Amino acid sequence: MAETFTFKVLATDGKARRGLIEMPRGEIRTPAFMPVGTGGTVKAMYMDQVRGVGADIILGNTYHLMLRPGAERVARLGGLHEFARWPHPILTDSGGFQVMSLSKLRKLTEKGVTFRSHIDGAAYEMSPERSIEIQGLLDSDIQMQLDECTALPAEFKEIERAMELSLRWAERCKTAFGDQPGKAMFGIVQGGDNAALRVRSAQALSAMNLKGYAVGGLAVGEPQAVMLDMLDITCPELPDGKPRYLMGVGTPDDILKSVARGIDMFDCVMPTRAGRHGLAYTRRGKVNLRNARHADDPRPLDEESDCPAARDYSRAYLHHLVRSQEALGAMLLTWNNLSYYQNLMQDIRAAIAVGAFEPRAGEISEGWAKGDLPVL
């Protein structure tokens, strides 16, 4: 394993890139999808299952782990890798998304953010320095700057104010992070749906010479076309030799279209959340196991899948589990969904390697368009 953090672009196909991040706790093959482990657990999954479906890295949430069980406690117990039994790379977000999503529970100043816990109402302060300190206590491998994410739509002046504040916080996070061999801090491009602000943010962050760059503040209410337009504008402004991470995205279609624009890393709660609500992702699109049409269907979700959840259990049984609210239903469908996402990423990487990304993306999309198999 590498002693330092490095990123190499191994192949390109148009703007799509296949790459490799190397760091002391392991390699991350890109384009990569990071399962979301908000509170130190990928919901409804064992960690060996998460690794088994092909995940190289998972994501943890600074805000939630700060509240419960507490960063200092995790540090005393050996850090998040030891605590959660995941010895591979972990990325922690900074708490910035909660600045937006919990806007009624926080107060924002130049210094940072004061939160009211959504659990018990207790007050917590989160400055850029404290965010990096918490991520250090968690011992995560890739740490994100604290930023302010603006919900869309929003007025230009509000988007500009949040973007400029995020840039100042990025500088403070960079100073607080210092030089940590083998680890990385990523900056986050903001600017809402405004092209000029996105360019300003990307250029200013690039000048900071960080180890990686995220695109934040998208998939927060805007149409997909707007998100893709912002990527078309932003990605060319980011350094070619650094990884690019699109935060909180997204659907398989979002991923295909974003890879085509030069994105290397993704995370989203969608596959795990969908699994807990009876929705399966497959090569023939989404399948809602709550629907009565599956009640007598002995066929599996996908007989060609290498995931036991998709291949070895009947739709009738999965439907029964979901309708009965059995925990196993959430477990099997989450397993299926994360397996599907990781197989999609492997498919993408293989296609880029041989210069066939565009036709392969077309074939994948055609599979979704065909829809689920008809009822027997």
Annotate the secondary structure layout.
Blueprint: E1 6-13, E2 16-23, E3 26-30, E4 32-35, H1 47-52, E5 58-61, H2 62-67, H3 71-76, H4 80-84, E6 90-93, H5 96-101, E7 106-108, E8 113-116, E9 123-126, H6 128-138, E10 142-144, H7 156-177, E11 184-189, H8 195-207, E12 212-215, H9 224-234, E13 244-246, H10 252-259, E14 265-268, H11 270-276, E15 279-282, E16 285-288, H12 308-311, H13 315-323, H14 327-353, H15 357-370
Parallel strand pairs: 4-14, 5-6, 6-10, 10-11, 11-12, 12-13, 13-14
Antiparallel strand pairs: 1-2, 2-3, 7-8, 8-9, 15-16
Helix pairs in contact: 6-7, 7-8, 8-9, 11-14, 13-14, 14-15
Question: Can you describe this structure?
Answer:
With 376 residues, the protein is of the alpha/beta class. The chain has two domains: 6-268, TIM Barrel; 275-370, no CATH class. 41% of the residues lie in helices and 19% in strands. It contains 15 helices and 16 strands. The protein has helices at residues 47-52, 62-67, 71-76, 80-84, 96-101, 128-138, 156-177, 195-207, 224-234, 252-259, 270-276, 308-311, 315-323, 327-353, 357-370, and strands spanning 6-13, 16-23, 26-30, 32-35, 58-61, 90-93, 106-108, 113-116, 123-126, 142-144, 184-189, 212-215, 244-246, 265-268, 279-282, 285-288. The strands form four sheets. It has an eight-stranded parallel beta sheet. Strands 1-2-3 form a three-stranded antiparallel beta sheet. The protein has a three-stranded antiparallel beta sheet with strand order 7-8-9. Strand 1 (6-13) and strand 2 form a beta hairpin. The longest helix has 27 residues, at 327-353. The radius of gyration is 20 Å and the shape is globular. 48% of the residues are buried.
